[in-house]
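In response to reviewer comment 3 from the previous cycle, which asked for concrete evidence that the modeling workflow produces usable outputs, we include below a single protein chain processed end to end. The sequence was submitted unchanged, and the resulting C-alpha cells are shown without manual editing.
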Amino acid sequence: MKKILILMLAFCATAVYAIMPANKLYEDKVKSVLFIETQSGTGSGIVLKDDGTFVTCFHVISNADYINVKTKDGRTYKVTGYKYLNPQTDIAILTINSRTKFTPMTLNNNTKIGDIVYTIANPKRLQFVFSDGMINQLSKEKIQFSAPTSPGSSGGALLNEAGELIGMITSQYNPSLAQNINFAVPNSYFAPYMDKRKKTNSKGLNWSEFVASTLNQKDLSAFIDYASAMKDRSMFYKYVKGAADEIDSESYALYGAFAIMAFMDNNASGEHLLKDASKWFALSILSNKNIETSAYGLMYSLLLNGKFEDMSVYSVYLNKYAKTRKFFYKKIIDISNCPDKDLACAEEHLYNMNVYLNHLTRKIYD
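The workflow returned the following C-alpha cells.
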C-alpha cells in the first residue's frame, strides 16, 4: 500500500511539474507560431519540424499569389513549396527554403473535456495573440474550445497546459448567431503528412498556378471543385490554368472568359489576367474557333486594359456578327457619354458587357 501511495504521489508531482505558468508557456511556444500573409489576407501557422515545415489551414492560402511568413522575432521567410495540400480537410503543410533552425511544437494527442487550453494566433492582423479557455466538446473530427478566435486565427496553435500542441484552429461559429464557439482539428489530421516529400516552386511561379502545375487531373478536379464551391472566380482560374497544356482549341474562348471573370473579381492586381484573356481569345481566333465569342472577348479585354488602338485590328472579325458588333460599339458610346468621374455609370455598362460575354460563352456549349 505504501509503495502504491508513493507511486501515486510521484505521478501527481510529475503532472503538476508539467504544467507551465502561462507567461512562461507563451514565451516558450510563441517562437513556434507563424504570421502568414498573402496578397489576399493573413492567417496563422504552426512549425512542425526544425527545417521550417509548418501547417496551416488550406483556406488561408487557397488563393495565394505568394505566401510570406514571419516569426515573433521579426524574421520573414518566403514559402517555396509544400508537402501536403487537401482542400477537403482544410489542411496545408508548407515548406520554407532557409538554413534557419526552427523550434517545432511538441505534439500531444491526449485531450479531455474541461482541460484548460491556450491559443497563440493572429486574429484580425493582430500578431501572436495569446488567449485561454477550456475544451468544451470533443469528437474524432473536431475539438470545440472557448478561447476567443477571429478571422486570422485559422492555422493557429491550440495548446494544453504543458505547452504541447493538441490541435490547429480552423473555424468559429458565426458570432452573430452564437457566442464563442470555436473549433480546431486534432493533430491526427495533419501529423501523418509532415514527413512527405516536398514539392518546390523552383521557378518562382505564382503560388496557386505552381500548385496546379504539380497536380494530377484527379487532384486538380478537387481543387477546381473547391474554388467553385467558394464562388471564387480568381481562384478558379488559377487552378484551371494549371491544366493549360492539355486544353484543346475548342476551349480557348472558355479560358479567355475565365480570365475575364477572374479580373472582375481581382481589382488589386489584374493586368496579367487581361493579358491572359487576350492570349486565349487570340489563340481561339488563330485556330478559327468560336470567332464571335473570341473576337468580342478580345476587344472587351483590350478595352478593359485601355489598349484602344489594338481594338481596330480585331474589329473586322465581328463584321459577320452584326448584333454583337452593334452591342459592343453601343456600349463604348454609352461609356463615353457617362458624366466625368461618374464611375458607377461606366461600371454599369462594363458589367453589361461582361454579362453579354457570359451569354456568348454559354452559347458555345449549349
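Confidence is low (pLDDT under 50) at residues 3-17. We consider this sufficient to address the reviewer's concern, and the full set will be provided in the supplementary archive.
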